[in-house]
Amino acid sequence: MPNDVVATLRLSGSRASGKAGCNSYGASWQMSTDGGTQFGQIISTKMACLEPAGVMQVERGVFDVLQHAVRLRRHGDNLVLLDASGQPLAKLAPAGSP
Q1: Residues with Cβ within 8 Å of residue 62, at least 6 apart in sequence
Q2: pTM of the prediction?
Q3: Do residues 26 and 15 touch, judged by C-beta distance below 8 A?
Q4: Cβ atoms of 40 and 28 closer than 8 Å
Q5: Domain for residue 66, yes or no?
Q6: Domain range enclosing 59
Q7: Burial of 81 from C-beta contacts in 10 A (0-12 / 13-18 / 19+)
Q8: In the chain, pLDDT over 90 holds for what percent of residues?
């Protein structure tokens, strides 16, 4: 991810929301007691951003991760989203982390 592109994920109740680089998004989500998770259909604003370079590629990656994540796992202070085969799709750090 380009250093000047910030993507966020906020999980609150049964809603997931954040900023995917350029656009804001939201989706339903649920998690089972064993860490299995499912994100619903993602709804986002539809702006096209040209700057910083790579921002739209980051956004497509964020949406792809959310569509394919089936499990969440804590790793220290980070949250790791995993695919169906257990492979990490993304590692998320708390806001303000380096």
Answers
A1: 7, 18, 20, 21, 25, 90
A2: 0.84
A3: yes
A4: yes
A5: yes
A6: 10-92
A7: buried
A8: 74
**Three-class DSSP category at 26:** strand
Predicted confidence (pLDDT) per residue in 27-40, tens digit: 999 999 888 999 99
What's the token pair of residue 60? 């497509």
Q: What is the mean pLDDT of residues 12-25?
A: 94
DSSP 22: S
Asked if residue 97 belongs to a domain, the reply is no
Q: Is 22 within the bounds of a domain? A: yes
CATH (domain of 38): 2.40.128.270
Total domains in the chain come to 1
Q: pLDDT above 70 covers what percent of the chain?
A: 94
Between vectors from CA 3 to CA 90 and to CA 92, what angle results, nearest 5°?
25
